[in-house]
Amino acid sequence: MKALLYKDLLVLWKQMKFVVFMVAIFCMMPDTGLSLNTFFVAYAGMIVPITLFAYDERAKWDSLAAMMPFSTRDIVLSRYVFSWLATAYAVLCYFIGQLFFESGFPGEALITLGLTLTLLLVVQAFYFPILFRLGAEKGRLVMMLVIIGIMVVAFLGAAVLDKLAVAPSPSVTLPGLVIGAVLSLASVKVSVKQYEQRVW
Amino acid sequence: MNAIQCRGLTKAYKDFTLEDITFDLPAGTILGLVGENGAGKSTTLKLLMDAIPRDGGQITVLGTDNQSPDFIRTKEDIGVVLDEACFPEVITPKELGKVMGYAYQNWDQAQYEGYLSRFRLPLDKKFKDFSKGMKMKLAIAVALSHRAKLLLLDEATSGLDPMVRDEILDVFNDFTRNEENTVVFSSHIVSDLEKICDYIAFLHHGKLVLFEEKDRLLEEYAILKGTAQQLEELDPDAVAGKKVTPYGAQALVRRSLIPAGFVTEHTNLEDIILFLAQEGGSDR
User: Which residues of A touch B86 (CB under 8 A)?
Assistant: First the structure.
């Protein structure tokens, strides 16, 4: 798996240096009310791995990887690990920004970050198996549908919580994060199956 | 020992079926896999590596069932070159060496650098800026730098100029100087196969029409020229394929079944393949 992660890191750095810097800058930026910093955390965790899928597809890397001493699990898990690392990088930038520009971590900011990460993990959990089955090109349309579907569910969930007068708090965010993490891990297994059944 | 044992291999797609492929390839030999585009050569190579699911059959590669968990370790001993080199566009040979060093336990960096130098490949040039020949040479350098015992080459010389092809064929010949090393080389450039192969497998419309030692093929078959009527008089088993034109007739015949008195000419692999393909591959 080290080889796959290193290859992805090289491709990311050489193809998407601009994105790496942009994520750092926007995640560190003080929040002006638009939550741009948390948006870029989600961007890093979602768009970076999707773009790597697309680069692999263009190079036909998958055909070669299938011939190399990698298990399907290694191939799938490495992409998940990479997306978690990309998210961790963005969160680290976010924390640095909070420390330097916001003088600490306001509870509200952490809750927003927690909800963003939950949403990101859920989107990844549903979308990655589709990407492993269909590839980046064919999976693009499905991605829009998945994201819209999950946004609608999230919006309705927020409306329900609002009606029940449950304000976003750590008691909502933490279970959400745990559910997101469990879904993400379960998604790895589903993706392995989808990748095995992919039509080559 | 056989490097590859393939029994009843079957794979069906919507519009194409690879049917009942069976052969044994002894270790230390070079097999040329020949066939028209879409005959099933690449599919066969992918199935040998268990890179795609199959519908039937059994494959043993270097003594390991290719669907057993141990096959991942066996893949360490198999070098693969695909028709497109399939490396990320932005990676340089130097960086690729590092990636492959992490991927293969037996990676030999010195050998890799030796091949890069032999093939005159720049260390720091991006893969996307390489010519087709350079890309193939890089893929071959990778395949030969992890102490592989089996090389699977899918159209590794297609689209290359004759000089580069010759240089690459020399490398494959060198590889098989070690008697344990085996090569499976798919190509539709029959002249390349004739130069280096010990065995020839001919795939036609998803069926294995023949699997034979090259020298035996060249000994067994000959070209007979005459009239259509002369060909009609021959034992049907003696004629593997024929071409009749208003100017005369030619047939690919089995020497041993031709009566004395008929004058035959030596043939080459390309003619054998062409005649057999025209016959629809029904002779074996």
Answer: 59-61, 63-64
The nearest CA of chain B is from the CA of A159 a distance in Å of 45
> Are both B21 and B128 inside the same structural domain?
yes
Does residue A158 sit at the B interface (CB-CB below 8 Å)?
no
Do B174 and B249 fall within a single domain?
no
pLDDT in tens, A110-164: 777 788 888 888 888 888 998 898 888 777 777 777 777 777 776 777 677 677 6
Distance separating alpha carbons of residues A42 and A32, to the nearest angstrom: 17
DSSP string for B186-245: EES-HHHHHHH-SEEEEEETTEEEEEEEHHHHHHHEEEEEE-HHHHHTS-GGGEEEEEEE
Q: Do B23 and B97 fall within a single domain?
A: yes
Chain A CB within 8 Å of residue B12 CB? no
Lowest mean pLDDT among A27-36, A70-79, B107-116: A27-36
The strand pairing partners of B154, in sequence order, are B186
Q: What is the CATH number of the domain that holds B158?
A: 3.40.50.300
Quote the number of domains for chain A: 1
The residue range of the domain holding A161 is 2-196
Same domain, B7 and B136: yes
The most confident of the ranges A28-42, A159-173, B194-208 is B194-208
Are residues B266 and B157 located together in one domain of the fold?
A: no
Report if residue B187 sits inside a domain: yes
Instruction: Count the domains in chain B.
Output: 2
For an interface test with B, which of A1, A63, A78 has the most B Cβ atoms less than 10 Å from its Cβ? A63
Which residues make beta-bridge pairs with B153?
B81, B185
B99 to chain A: nearest residue by CA?
A3
Provide, as residue numbers in chain B, all residues whose Cβ is less than 8 Å from the Cβ of A133.
Answer: none
Q: With contacts defined as CB-CB under 8 Å, which chain A residues touch B51?
A: 63, 66-67, 200
Collapse the DSSP code of B25 into the 3-class scheme (helix H, G, I; strand E, B; otherwise coil) and give the result: strand
Q: What are phi and psi of B240, to 5 degrees?
A: -90, -20
Check B87 against A3: CB less than 8 A apart: no
Please give the pLDDT value at position A22: 85
Q: Which residues of A touch B53 (CB under 8 A)?
A: 196-197
Q: Do strands B150-154 and B78-81 pair parallel, antiparallel, or not at all (unpaired)?
A: parallel
Residues lower than pLDDT 50 in chain B = 281-284
B192 and B171 in a single domain? The answer is: yes
Domain extent, residue B247, equals: 217-278
Please indicate, yes or no, whether residues B141 and B40 belong to a single structural domain of this protein: yes
- Alpha carbon of B80: minimum distance to chain A alpha carbons (Å): 7
Instruction: Give pLDDT tens digits for B171-201.
Output: 888 898 888 899 999 988 888 888 889 999 9
Q: How many CB pairs under 8 A join A and B?
A: 77
